[in-house]
Amino acid sequence: MISTDLARALFLLTVPVAWWAGLLTIWWLYSVALVHGVFTVFFDVAYVSYLPHLVGRGSLVEGNSKLSAIRSVTSISGPMVAGPLVGLVGAPATLLVSSAGMTVSGLLTITIRKREEKPDPSEHPQLAQEIKDGLKFVVKYPTLRAIMLGDAIFNLFLVMYQKMLLVFLEREIGLQSFGIGLIFSGMGCGALLGALLATRVSKRVGQGPVIWPASLVTCPLTALMPLARGGWSVYVAAIGLAALSLGGVVRVVAQSSFQQALTPDRLLGRMSATARFVPWGGIPLGGLLGGSSGSVFGAAGTLWIGAAGMTLSVLPNFLSPLRTMRTLPTEKAPEFAR
């Protein structure tokens, strides 16, 4: 976590430096975006795997809720600060601020005093075998498999929906940038509210049962958007998008806690990487399908398809043991023999 934060800060810093030196090109930006994305994946896998060591397995839901609340606050405040800052000092100087923020993040991580047990080094480490171990562990257990499959379906149709949402709002509804920004800010507020409610809702409904109703209740509300015809109806439909964000955070907090509670310490990193690789793998496909669907069915038609697909993503979790598991597993799943 420390090294990836500092590495991301360093690569972001190269953009304003290259601009100042007159060397900045679009390919430089592509390269920085690629490297920054790779380090971000390593950071995300690391912090999800580290959380059980830091807060203990008995506080996973609360820990994940607090992390989600912080992410929601930054998703709302970040764009609000970035826009005026770009206008005031320019884009290259704004990236200096981003680089400084990454550096502060790494330095703050250094201050964590919780000792982490070092993993036992393998005599003959094999990356392919470790990837296979993570995938085999996730696929073997019904709850982990259901979460991964549900996420993959949700992400695929969410990206399809998002690709046509901007087109729909701008071309068919006629919203300007301020109105579109207001709708997306509402989604950020929904995510923040979901993070604040996640622990309470999970305790009331049950850890496992909350995963599928969170999507079943909120995903159909996204169908309000293609019904909108301008004026007040757009902002009523935007409530459905805020609800989607709320339900999504509640679901992610609950299912992340399940994944962490069920996975042995040795496999936490591999489970986290697998649980991200498969659902994220559908994101490029969702973008392609969204664009193709928009060409055939139009923006509104694609929004209908996306809303239906996101709603159907509840099925893997509903048909799994998660439907009745009201508390987190008290024992980690046994590891399989190689």
Describe this structure as you would to a colleague.
This protein has helices at residues 2-21, 26-55, 60-89, 91-110, 127-140, 142-172, 177-205, 211-218, 224-227, 232-262, 268-312, 315-318. 79% of the residues lie in helices and 0% in strands. It has 12 helices and no strands.
How do the helices and strands line up, and which of them pair or pack?
Layout (H helix, E strand, L loop, with lengths): L1 H20 L4 H30 L4 H30 L1 H20 L16 H14 L1 H31 L4 H29 L5 H8 L5 H4 L4 H31 L5 H45 L2 H4 L20
Helix pairs in contact: 1-2, 1-4, 2-11, 3-4, 3-7, 3-10, 5-6, 5-11, 6-11, 7-10, 8-10
Tell me which oligomeric state these chains represent. Answer: single chain
Mean pLDDT: 85
Q: What string, H for helix and E for strand, traces the elements in order? A: HHHHHHHHHHHH
Q: Number of DSSP helices?
A: 12
Beta-strand percent range? under 5%
Roughly how many Å is the radius of gyration? Answer: 21 Å
Give the termini distance in whole angstroms: 29 Å
- The 3D shape can be described as globular
Q: What is the total tally of β strands?
A: 0
Q: Major sheet, described briefly? A: none
- Low-pLDDT parts are none
Structural class: mainly alpha
**Which bin fits the share of residues in helices?**
over 70%
Name its key features.
338 residues; mainly alpha; 12 helices; globular
What's the quick description here?
The protein has 338 residues and is mainly α.
